[in-house]
Structures are given as C-alpha cells and as structure tokens.
Automatic annotation (TrEMBL):
PANTHER family: OUTER MEMBRANE PROTEIN TOLC (PTHR30026), TO APRF-PUTATIVE OUTER MEMBRANE EFFLUX PROTEIN OR SECRETED ALKALINE PHOSPHATASE-RELATED (PTHR30026:SF23). The keyword Repeat does not apply. Residues 206-240 form a coiled coil. The keyword Signal applies. It comes from Spectribacter hydrogenoxidans. It holds the Pfam family OEP. Keywords: Cell outer membrane, Coiled coil, Membrane, Signal, Transmembrane, Transmembrane beta strand, Transport. Belongs to the outer membrane factor (OMF) (TC 1.B.17) family. Residues 1-22 form the signal peptide. This is TolC family protein. It is found in: Cell outer membrane. InterPro entries: OMP_efflux, TolC-like.
Amino acid sequence: MRRSTFLTGLLGSLFLATTAGGVEPDNTVAPPETVDAPVTGPLELSVEEAVALALQANPELLAERQNPIIAGTFADVERARFDPSVFASASIGAEVSQQQFANTNENLLIERDTKSAAVGLRQYLPTGTDIELSVSQDKFESNRAPTQAGARVGLTLTQALLRGAGIGTNLVALRQARTDVAASAYQLRGFVATLVAEVERTYWQYLGARERIRILESSLELAQRQVEQARQRIDAGTVARTELAAVKAEVARRRQALIDGRAEAERLKASLLRQINPPGRGDGEREIRLASEVEFTPGEDPVASEHIDLALARRPEINEARLLLARNELQVVATRNGLLPRLDLFVTLGQTGFSDSFGEAYSQVDSGDTYDLSAALEFEYPLGNRAAEAEDLRARREVAQAEASLANLGRLISAEVRNAVIEARRAAAQIDATAATLALQEETLEAEQARFEVGRSTSLLVAQAQRDLLAAQLDRADAFLAYRQALIDLYRLDGSLLIRRLIDAPGEKPPDLPWLDSRF
C-alpha cells in the first residue's frame, strides 16, 4: 500500500472519532385520547375529557412546551463544536523587479507570477485535539526562470497535554447543555401535573358548586312551604302571628346563600373554560354540562412510606434538583482542569511533490519521497493562577450548596406527602361521619316537625332543625369533594398523577447520567 493512501485512511478514521451524539428534546404531552369539542352550544364533559381538552389547547401549556426545544438548540450549539469544517483559499499575485548585474551593468526586468490554492478539513475532537488535513498547490512563473509547480498534502495536529486535555473535560459544556434539556423536560412535566391537578380541582369544585345550588334550591323550597304552613296555622288560630317572622327570616337567609352559591359557580365555570380553552366561544357565557359523578366509595388507606418513596423517585422538582447537582459537578470537572498549566503539542506532517505542472506535481506527491515533519511544545502558566483557583472554589461550593438543597428538598417532599396522606385519610373518614350526621339531622327534623304539628314546638325550632339539616347536606357533599381534592393533591405530590391518568409527558423516570463521576 502506498504511504499517502495510508495517511488518507488514518485521517478519515480520526475525523469520524467523535463521541458526542445528537440531542432530541421531547415535548410530547398527550392524554389517552383526544376530544373533539363542539364549536358552539353546550359542552358536555367528564373530568377526563376536561383534562384532555386542557392538554390539547391550554395556551400556557403550548408556550411551556417550547422550552425543551429551546434548550435542545443550546445543546446543538455545543455539539457543533465537534463538527468538521471545510476551508478553501486561493490567491494570485504578480511581481515586477529590476536586477542589475555588476559585471555588465545590464538592467534586467524580471516578472514573476504566483498562483496558490488550498482546500482542507478541520475538526476539533473531544480529546482536546485539533486536526487539519489540507491539500495545497503553488505555481511560480517567471520570464527569467522555468515554471515551477508544487503540491503538498499535509496533516497538522495540535494536542492539549494538560489544560484542555481529555474527553471528560471537553464534553463538559455539551453534557451541561444536555442536562439542561433533561431539566426542561422535568419542568414541563411539573407544569403538566400542576395543570392537570388544577383542571381536575376546578372541575370538581364546579360540580360541587352545582350540587350546593341544588341543595340550596331544595332547601329554599322547603322553607317557602314552611312559610305557607305557618300562615295557614296563623289563619286557623293554632299558632301566634309572631311565628311567621322566624320562617320568613329563614327564607331570606337561604336566598342569600343561593345568590352566593350561584355566583361562585359562575366564577368556577369561567375558570374551567379558561383552563380547557375549548374551540369557539370560550368565555364564561358558554354552558358546561358535567358528566362525572360526585359520590364514590373511598379506596384503601394510603401508606405514607410507599407514597414518599414514589415521590423521592418521581417528583419533577427533585429530579430537576438532581440535575442541577450534576451540572455543578460537571463544572468542577472543568475548573479542576483549569488549574493545570497549558502545555500543547504541535505536530505537522506533509508530503510534497514538485514539477513544472500541477498534474506532474501531484503524481510526485504519490510516488516521491519528499516528506516533512516538525513538532513543537508550547507552555504557559499564569503566576498565582488566582482566577482559576477562584473559579474552582466557587464550583465546589456550588456543589456543596446543591447537595444541601437536594437533601432539604427531600425532607420537604417527605413532609408534604405525609401531610397529604393524613388529609386523604381524614377526608375519607369524613365521608362516613357526615353520612351519620345527615341521617341524625333528618330524624331530628322529622321529630321537630311532628312536635310542631301537635303544638309542642315552634316555627323557630323547626327552622333551626331545617338549617342544621341543610348544613349536614352541604357537609356531606363537601366531604366527597374534599376526598377527591385530597387524592389529587396526594397523587400530584408523589409524582404519580400523570401516570395514573395515563398521560404521556416527558420526564417520567429519574435522570440517568452514566458519564457523571460519583463525587468529587
């Protein structure tokens, strides 16, 4: 095999020896199935359909989904440092001079034309190596000398031996950019989980508000019937006229509660429409028909330790904090290398051919023995090196700070999840407790009405019993909603809400950073 062919093959292998692959940021957010909502008319939605609409068209989510793509562009910029580049140059020149010969006193006019061209490849490798492969040619033409052409194939290597050497050091910026891409995925997941929780919470609050309106309307009708009954008894002379004021006051009080309840329902409907952003008219005037049911049977008691373990592995916040720690540890790799002096090795290897034409010159390159080789070392070290030492100290302190923050975040998450478990258990217990209270209040009202029928009670006592029954009915409805809210909060805090809702979003698993050293 010819030596120039061997050189070309070696260079080809070097140019392919990059260790940094591309980055594909993931911003996919998708519910189990899409929802086609009507442009006009009422919206009939289950809670799952409301969540799906929000994931399809919520404007805040559409903006948030751009962040992983934006972060990916920074990773692409860092990856581009290791991309090869092509360069080329060409020049042409002319020189005219006079030369006088002493023995003849003759002036000779000398004309010289030069033509030069070069083309080649350059690449910076993660090992800290700059490689340049070039092919150049020069041609000299003169009226007083024969034409001379030269062609050269050359290889130049610049290798950092201390500062800037090593794959780990040179990939710090790229790996930090990739860490930022992963962090943006966890940020997106956290935003999606919060959005889903808000939509579900608003949906159930609106459903609860509608249920409260139904209970208040029924109670108002009962109070109005009580007024009619009191009037009939007053006309019959069985009760005093003073009894009428108490039942009328109760009617007015329930109208007040109904006004407040309807206003709260309208506010919640407008909030839900803003979150789901349906097609067409999405303001508060559009009607929403809720298809999900309020009442349901609580499941098994949640185990705090299981939810805490899940949260410490799945919560987007703690995974993002782990990435911040990893990013700071990468910075220590860079600053530790920056403490070293700069020592660079330069090696130039070339093969040249000469003739009177370019074609012949290139043939001489392939068959001739005109090689050139040179090497050099360059050393530099700033006295004191205070800037590098300060940067290294700052990087190490930032690692310590990130470690402390990560440990503290773990404790906060554990406390949040434990409190959420306590709240879920309390809300589940309240469902049974309010059921018992409601049954007793119904019996109390029946007994009070029976005593009123035989003249042993007053309208005021009956109104108070009705008021207590109304409060028990509202508490019963609130207990179911509180349990729903408690489960939503628990699943959001333990990081499992999106998995339980079968929603596809990036950042599902803890970060996997195999290239990271354990600790420094």
